[in-house]
Amino acid sequence: MFIFKRENGALEIAPANFSPDKFDESVLSGVAEVLCVGKILVKQTRLVLKSREEMANIREQAQRAAEPAQEQPKRRKAKK
User: Fold this and answer.
1) CB 6 within 8 A of CB 36
2) pLDDT score at 74
3) CA-CA distance, 9 to 3, in Å (whole number)?
4) CB-CB contact of 4 with 12 (8 Å)
């Protein structure tokens, strides 16, 4: 894949029939650089495990948060 960098700094995808070995001078008018793209990277999201220490801290916090809720039972409203 080739990209043309124009003299004004704009980027433009080269035509599909462009070849660096055989090219037409008229195609390169106004082109400052021809960039060859070897890899195209795509932004991705990965799920990774937390360290053992972080997982232990999360478990402890969850247990502490659950303990007060267990000690105080919910009161029911009296029927009128």
Assistant:
1) no
2) 63
3) 12
4) yes
